[in-house]
Recover the amino acids of this structure.
């Protein structure tokens, strides 16, 4: 992973990297040095692709190609509609509030949540600084 900072500024402007899992890679790109906030995960599988981030969720699957005979192309998959109708990060905040009010149960274990935070921390600590 790599972290970019502007010279003379200690605030990160971009973080990006690749996580290699046994069967597929995951590309991470986030940052605020744009006219918009950006966070994205790009996950490639042998028969599909998921692109998820700040305000978007796209799932593609290998299907008969409309462009080439006897080939497959990645096309939008109707089997995987977006999990929520609005911003997933806003929904996360709403779920936290509902949990503390006692109106909602946890959807992930504390162990899973801590594991994700440990992965993020390791990525950050192992990243190389780019000027």
């Amino acid at each position: 992973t790599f972290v970019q900072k502007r010279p003379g500024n200690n605030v990160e402007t971009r973080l990006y990297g690749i996580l290699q899992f046994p069967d597929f890679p995951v590309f991470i790109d986030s940052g605020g040095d744009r006219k918009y906030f950006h966070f994205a995960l790009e996950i490639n599988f042998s028969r599909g692709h998921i692109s998820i981030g700040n305000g978007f969720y796209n799932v593609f699957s290998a299907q008969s190609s409309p462009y080439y005979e006897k080939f497959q192309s990645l096309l939008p998959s109707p089997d995987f509609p977006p999990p929520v109708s609005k911003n997933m990060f806003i929904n996360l905040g709403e779920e936290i509030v509902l949990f503390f009010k006692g109106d909602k149960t946890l959807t992930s274990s504390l162990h899973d949540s801590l594991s994700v935070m440990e992965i993020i921390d390791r990525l950050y600590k192992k990243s190389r600084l780019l000027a």
Q: What stands out?
A: The longest strand covers residues 12-20. Residues 2-130 form one domain. The chain has a mean pLDDT of 80. The chain has two helices and eight strands.
